[in-house]
Design a protein that fits this description.
Blueprint lengths: L8 H5 L3 H6 L20 H14 L22 H4 L1 H4 L6 H5 L5 H12 L8 H22 L5 H36 L3 H16 L3 H12 L6 H15 L3 H24 L5
Helix pairs in contact: 7-8, 8-9, 8-11, 8-13, 9-10, 12-13
């Protein structure tokens, strides 16, 4: 692998350590960017936000909320709203609590599990895997806990959420690469600075290798009906695209962690069987 390859892991490793940590932001955990705020919603805030959504939603059907009669509001101790890993994103899914075929606590618990990823840090490939599994888990929540008359709207929420997380990851990478560019320039390393600038241009154009990997990973989990094949596909991808023993071992271990998490998630869902 050439050091000059701006899409290589070496380019990403040139980022400052603090920014490299924040590049993992696929579930809204924490960032070092200005304006990033960890949110802990009060029960009152949850109630008010939920009420506003109901008031403004068009009543296309008089039964639109009757199908969600078992859902109300999650308890104040819900991990979905109190866990910093998911609290920032929780407001995005308030409509799921209003349109649910289960109790709000069960929906909130499922969403919480859907948005968390294995704790170990990795590279942009494992981050892409995490986002892909988040997509798969959210889609399963929609299929399992959302009534048929609201599933399309819920699926649109999921798609927009995943797109925004991808954009957020790209923006964080640009910030880190911009810092690396300035550092290289201050050291007189024009060639390295140019490679970082090329990487930024690729991210802007959507042609960076990290973006290509992410598209592949998201494609693997796009169809929840094929969930049994997800992890073999991820493992095959690692074996076909990685050559360094350490990288293969690390990413294969991450696939195993994701599979364990997926199995626990699916096992926790109440299917009514």
């Amino acid at each position: 692998m050439s050091v000059k390859d701006v899409g290589s892991a070496a380019s990403i490793r040139a980022m400052p350590a603090a920014r490299q940590d924040t590049a993992r932001v696929l579930t809204g955990v924490k960032t070092d960017l200005p304006g990033s705020v960890e949110v802990s919603l009060s029960q009152e805030a949850i109630s008010q936000a939920s009420a506003r959504r109901v008031d403004h939603e068009p009543e296309s059907s008089e039964n639109s909320l009757s199908s969600a009669s078992t859902a109300s509001e999650p308890g104040l101790a819900s991990n979905f709203f109190s866990d910093p890993a998911t609290a920032n994103d929780a407001p995005r899914f308030l409509s799921f609590l209003q349109h649910a075929t289960v109790a709000a606590d069960d929906m909130a618990d499922a969403l919480h599990q859907a948005l968390i990823s294995p704790a170990e840090k990795g590279d942009y490939t494992t981050n892409a895997m995490d986002l892909a599994l988040t997509q798969g888990k959210l889609n399963r929540v929609v299929e399992t806990y959302v009534p048929a008359d609201y599933q399309q709207q819920a699926s649109d929420v999921v798609a927009q959420f995943i797109d925004e997380k991808a954009t957020q990851a790209d923006q964080l990478a640009k910030v880190a690469l911009s810092q690396a560019t300035r550092l290289a320039q201050s050291l007189g390393n024009r060639e390295q600075a140019r490679h970082h600038q090329d990487a930024i241009a690729q991210l802007t154009d959507g042609t960076h290798s990290s973006q290509a990997v992410r598209r592949e990973m998201l494609g693997i989990t796009a169809n929840s009906a094929d969930s049994d094949s997800w992890f073999s596909s991820l493992s095959n991808w690692v074996n076909e695209n990685r050559f360094l023993p350490y990288t293969i071992e690390s990413e294969t271990r991450h696939v195993a962690a994701l599979q364990t998490q997926w199995q626990a998630f699916v096992g926790s869902l109440k299917t009514g069987d």
